[in-house]
## 1
Amino acid sequence: MLICSIKLEEMKSIIILLSLTLLMVSCGEKKESSENKKEELTKLSGTIKVDGSSTVFPITEAVAEEFRTEQPKVKVTIGISGTGGGFKKFSRGETNISDASRPIKDKEKKACAENNINYIQLEVAYDGLAVLVNPQNDWVDSFTIEELKKIWEPAAQGKIMKWNQIRPEWPDKEIHLFGPGVASGTYDYFTEAIVGKSGSSRGDFTASEDDHVLVQGIAGDKYSLGFFGLAYYAENKDKLTLIGVHNGEKIVKPTLETVSNGTYRPLSRPLFIYVNSTSVKRPDVVEFVNFYIDNAAELSKDVGYIPLPKENYTIQKENFKKFVENNK
Amino acid sequence: MRKIKEFIIEKLLFSSALVTIAITVGIILVLAIEAFRFFSEVSIIEFFTNTQWTPLFTEKHYGILPLLSGTLLTSFIAISVALPIGLSISIYLSEYAPKSFRKTVKPLLELLAAVPTVVYGFFALIVVTPFLQGIFPNLSGFNSLSAGIVMGIMIIPFISSLSEDALHAVPYSLREASYGMGATKLQTAFKVAVPAASSGIIVSIILAMSRAIGETMIVAIAAGQQPRFTFDPTVPVETITAYIVQVSLGDVQHGSIEYRTIFAAGITLFAFTFLLNTISYQIRKKYKQQYE
């Protein structure tokens, strides 16, 4: 009906306009490819699928951004389904690399084996899991591990609801808890380190695999308490207050030194990437992972995590080289 | 030849009507089958009476009341915002405004319903919540008050447009009779026109309510993701729709009981909206006044 109402003259001008636009767009693309021919490095292309931990995400994202300047034709997509969610997809062969903020579990290893997926585990950085409160919170100076356990263990569900149940001098107000959900490696690690069993916690808190939701929640609520990876504190320092944890001798806050020398206990942990064995047959994936290991030290520091000692990176690179050789 | 053509067209149109029915039946079947499997493991009594909803965690509780209270709380706040505003707009447009004003303003109002709900959600989180926190300092970052208010703004066009149509359908002769008896414009509007259009107005309210109950994006972004059984609008809650989003985006295994909670929650939602639609149909049938 619409087409009939447009006169023939108007149709002609529309067609001319459209073809001109198409011509301009295609001309633009031709220019780019002639520039590329002048480059010396071999331009790789392909799509690398990464998914998994939202904690490791800032590092992977930073690496992918830097990598794009070297290899603009390689597309790296990074998801944040959580460590568990990432491993699910990895074990089905849907992703090439899995970000993980905890080591792979036995049942995930089994799932990979069932689908003939072999992999290599590579350490990329250290994280000091941060415990955070709202900046208006002026009563908390530190936490002990027992206090954190009392707040987060399954028995606390429905019972430990107010601040003054932890220390009587704290306010008689509800604690609003924020933390990663059950698909998150951060959740697994925190529950294992604090409660004693991975995956064991109370259920009545705001759970989200997206750390930005947690940042927003804690920053907007005076009586909030939460935990997530240190990088998300580093990029939101003005909205959150970091709380030190008593490690048995003294109160320690997570910093470059305390995580590197192991005094921030028990919430220091390594961060990993897992690479699929069939994916390393592709030169773009190999190039990306080598680039990752080379630049992880600097970029992890940029985003707020703690780099491994230099020797560790050299060892990881050697291991990866052998893995690529074995899977050619 | 013509007979065959007519026959084909008739059957084609009949099958398209059948397709819509088939899809509805299909959705109900899928929900019902998985929900049935869910209820073979969790007792219905626990589902309807337990005040905790923690199916993903160690201590599992399967009470739908927290999610239900979250949904009903946000919808209630939305309706209490949308109803007075929407109704006043419709009465003004129908009884008081000049025809040209009505012609331009009505499409503008419908723009409110055209804004993507995710934009509304962020508006609630980033603009409305900090503003309300200036008035109520105890307001959490995630709460049902700002989500409810923004949802109310979104459903104003549902109420105003449909009520205005209902008021417009009341024949002018009724109003003339009222003026003839010496009534003022206000008295005519509220005591003659509104009661005459009451069935249409009530239907518009129920439609807006079912829209609010099924709303997902605004509450998923601004109302929080903590299931709790409360009617306090200042704390984070979780609605049924936000829970379904949360679990679907995670790594729940197909066929596990956590997976089936999606269907149990979904069928509860479906039951509510179905109930509301049936009520509105009954009201329309019973109270609709046929004018010549």
## 2
Amino acid sequence: MEKEINQYTVSVYTENNIGLLNRISAIFQRRHINIESINSSASEIVGVTRWTILVNMTEVNIKKIIGQIEKQVEVIKAYYHTDEETIYQESCLFKVKSDLLFEERQIQNIIKESNARIVTVNKEFFVLEKSGRRNEIELLHRELSAFGIMQFVRSGRIAVTKDEMKITEMLAAFNN
Amino acid sequence: MIMETLTVKQKQYLEQPKERISGSEAVVRCLLAEGVDVLYGYPGGAIMPVYDELYKYQDKIHHVLTRHEQGATHSAQGYARISGKVGVAMATSGPGATNLITGIADAQIDSTPIVCITGQVASHLLGSDAFQETDIVGISTPVTKWNHQVTKASEIPEVIAKAFYIAKSGRPGPVLIDITKDAQFEEFDFQYKKCTGVRSYIPVPKTDESSLKAAAELINNAKKPMIVWGQGIILSKAEEELKTVMEKAGIPSAWTIMGASAIPTSHLLNIGMVGMHGNYAPNVLTNECDVLIAIGMRFDDRVTGKLDEYATQAKVIHFEIDPAEIDKNVKTDVAVLGDAKATLTKLLPLLKSNSHSDWLQKFKNLYAIEFEKVIKNDLHPTKEGLTMGEVLNEINYQSKGEAAIVSDVGQHQMIACRYAEFNVSKSNITSGGLGTMGFALPAAIGAKMAAPEREVVAIIGDGGYQMTIQELGTIFQTKVPVKIVVLNNEFLGMVRQWQQLFFDKRYASTEMTNPDFVAIAKGYYVDAKRVTKREELGSAIEEMMKSEDAYFLEVCVEKEDNVFPMVPSGASVSDIRLE
């Protein structure tokens, strides 16, 4: 049980300072752990950055990693969650030749069925955006591959947790 | 408008008179405001404006020119370790900055509060591969508690205040501040305010009262309790609190190498050092105790040996300031978070008076075995060659256990830590976690300068000595009366010991052809002597101790002696070997 490798979503609330990416990624690198995806963005609190990091490891080790991350001076709080404990999405963009959109009926069906959104269309190409789970994105990728994809990019995972985070309370406690 | 939303304190701060000064003068003024009276460093292009200010302020702050930047960090560490204050090191950009890294890494793993200030190329040159440009913030990130690059003079006061606060609060550690040359030249309105908190940083975690109760209950019901304390006791200044707890509950107590000297060697409940070359009894009985109380220590692999066979029979209580240490190596039954001084104070009234005399007797019995097999031969040898142990024994005798012992890394270090007698806390200054050869000589400089009233004796091997031997120049120029003892076995002794035991005596690159150490010391105008015979040892050490100036003593010891007891790498602590 302890040695079972699971996928964990790590959420880290930090100050918005130069060099923190280095500091956090070094914690994984030093332990020879590959980061599957990493996302840095604003959070619900003004001036506080939220990192979403996806890793595969044992629960024993992710607990230690969280300890090491929280130990960093500019980290406010870090959490880890299983897939079941979060609502998560990835986003992707496909760039495809425009002729296909009009000549291949099937493409139109694929777009419709996959709930993908056309972002822009011009004479040469159109761009398709799709948000969802990894398997949905991969399915769409496979289907479009048959026709040829000019460019593809997928974002890191972003996730919100079902539980409360209580960061605002923590910061308020400091100010008082 | 804005003023109305500010607190009284903030208003007072803004209304303070301001002075227009340069960033470089601000650096010096900030150091003075933090109570810094001495710093160690080496000038160079990118830090020259600060050195120019140090020249102007030389009556207030003493800059010690070390002979290498690594020496500056180790001196700052020695200063911090003996005084409990923050040590300061300074260097220029590029190679000056990278030379600090070993000392910073050492301070990080041994939780030593130091602040390192480096010069950096002007901000418009950052990233251009300018002369002596190196990404020192990037390089130092994994080995600093915090680091920061300053590109504007106005940031200097706040950043330096934060640096000192972070370095010394909670679990201490090294901080590096990199200041671009243009920020040093730039003028701004100077104001200094000490840092009292950083919102994302909790230096001391809250103590859960129920954890204290649970700990007390385990201790009160224990038949065979054992304490292992670490440097946390010294950092938290909890020596008295620990002693009171030990005595009230009657608990045999051992120490890690970093915890040495917190409790006097002669204390009846002090049962010696744990770990690879620690004492026989505490290692063997770690696997027999029923409650193991770890205080301010981190279960380093050199302490635990094979983890799967470490104290598995015991309930483990861990008193610790750093939450990341809980369950990192050893699974605990009760974790008591907080500062050791505070938690031990709260624990005391919950403890029942006790004495575990039968259990303590077990330690004494095993000590008798260790004495017969190892200690007797180390301290009172009958063979011709000198032993490292008898040198320590003579130093103990002549210093009456009052000296601070600064050791380097290797066999002599294990001997020094095993046999040095300590009456006073903060007396064992050594490179524990990183095992940095070359640590002792510069660390001794810092220690002696921070505690001039104390006798400071550096014990160094012939290998490590030559890694920072150039600091003899610092000792001579600055007139630091440190006593230097080199235990010369013409080998990298600890590696040779491993080669003998585990690599069929294939002594790959461990034999040293050494220079005339006495001549080198004399070349630096340091009094020096070489001892090769037992009958010369006592008088030579006496002469060294009586010297008012720095003194160098080389003792030529047996070439192929080994340090025992020893827990072989990967073995369980109870499989400790006596020979």
